[in-house]
Amino acid sequence: MKISISRQNIYLLIVSIFLLIFVLLFSFLVLIPEGKEYREKRATLIKEQRSLREYQNFHDETLEFLKELQSENRAIITAFDKSFNSVKFEKQYKSYFSSLSVSKIPQITKEDEFSVYEVNTTSQISSPKSFYEFLDAINKSDWIVGVNFPIEFIREGELIKSSFSIKVYSNAKDSNKSL
Amino acid sequence: MKFSYIKPRKKSVFTPEFKLLFTFFSITIFMLVSTYLFLLFKDYRFDADKKEIMQNRSDLNISINQMKEQIQFIDIQTLLSEKIYTQNSVLKESITNLFDLVPDRITLSKASLLENGLILYGITPNKDVYNFMLQAPLRSIFHKTYSSFYPAENGWFRFVSTNYIQDESLNLNEVNEEEIEDED
Question: Domain extents for chain A?
Answer without folding.
Answer: 1-72, 83-171
